[in-house]
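Database export, one record per block. Field names are fixed; values are copied verbatim from the stored entry.
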Amino acid sequence: MIGGVAWITAAALAQDVSAAGYARIMTRPDFAGGDGRLGYWNLYGRLLNEGPYAALEVQVEALEREAGSVRPWTDLHLRVEGGSVGNADPGNGVLSLFRLSQLYAQAGNVTGQAVVWRIGTLESSFGDLGLYDLQPARVLFDTVGGQATVRTDRVDVVVGAGDAGYALKGDRYNTVASAGATARLRVAPGHLEIGAGGQFYSEPQVIGNRLAPHQTPGLGYEDFVRGEFLQNYAEQNQAPAGDIPNPEPRSSSSYKLVGYLGFGDAGPLRWNNLFVSFERLHPLGFTTETFEGVTADLYVHDLTDQRTVLLVGDELQARLIPDRWDGACGALLGAHRDADNQIAPSDDDRGYASIVVRSQIYLNPVLHLLKEWSYAVETSANGNRFRNHADSIFTGQDGVQNDRGLEFGDADKRVTWQGKAGFVLSPLGPGVYVRPSLRLLYGVQHSTENNAFGNSFVADLDQFNTFGNVERHWHQVVALEAETWF
């Protein structure tokens, strides 16, 4: 972080420097005991479900571009970002919660005017679902390496390759070779465009490397979930604690496929973005267990190599009454599946569907009335995952308590509705995504799940719980927010 600040300071002393960024800050007094966010996550729309954030990207023209010239040029990019601001969240703005997320150099006019070369962090995206703050059709964002971009009047092509090991494995780093590409075709510029792309990951087998892919023989999914393999293996085989079979080496692979369709500038329709993504998640490395004072690493490649994620997202922006009324509508569908897991509810075995509708009426060029509502259904594919009542901890499948059960609550579905309304001050005039934006908003949520928002409530029904346990399905907040791009 200190190095990033020093780099920015040095860059500011250079001649050809530009900077851009994004910031949002808010206060949301939450008298219901929550953390200031209306619901759990952006499935219900990003509005009132996000925290503070700041990002700054600096570009330095190391070798200046000259308009219309074929002379080579080079620039450097650095982006620092994080989700904490002083007095606005638990992190209180400490710099350790910020990160140097992008650092790369670009060069053009080296092998032709249409080609731009890039070394460093990579990324290629077809765009945003603004109402959700998501980029479903994005590849290479986890890779450091080299990238070539070809841009013409009709076609954009991006090809990149490098290493995604640190993004996927963190401090358990092992090389994960990554390669990907995207292509965008403007069939009718400004009216219709399509795109497709993909990314492939390969983690080779390396004998002797404890951080390379392996599988512990005999480890089943239930023992993995419960954390009882060491105990059960010792009892079944009359073996000392921790005396388990040696892990067997494996090689890992995964992939992601993305698609895009954009169309608009027809009547009241400004633009519609449709994104599709299918991903086979990369297998995990190992977990640890402790039994009778002995701790062992258990490798889980074969238990985590069948996880897939399908995402479909769409967002429409419309000019309902020119300069008076704009609207936006978004929808998101997700299907997470884990073919290895047939017994336990988890984030890898779930589905969800959501719709968000926003209306923005321009009372005058700078004062706007904003209304938004969302409806979302989330389902668990492997039994009950949601607690609908304060005493759900005592129930299991079909209302029967099971102390050995893997279920979490008393329902396999959560249905959440949110409504938001308030006033927006927009100094730059009309537009759903025009910034800066100063907002005074009220939001209300109803969910079938009990206490379906971030909180510090004590859910224990033990007789020694002195705080009590209350059932809440409604939640409301009032927010004063500022958001800007610069």
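Remark 1: The CA atoms of residues 162 and 400 lie 52 Å apart.
Remark 2: The two ends are 22 Å apart (CA to CA).
End of record.
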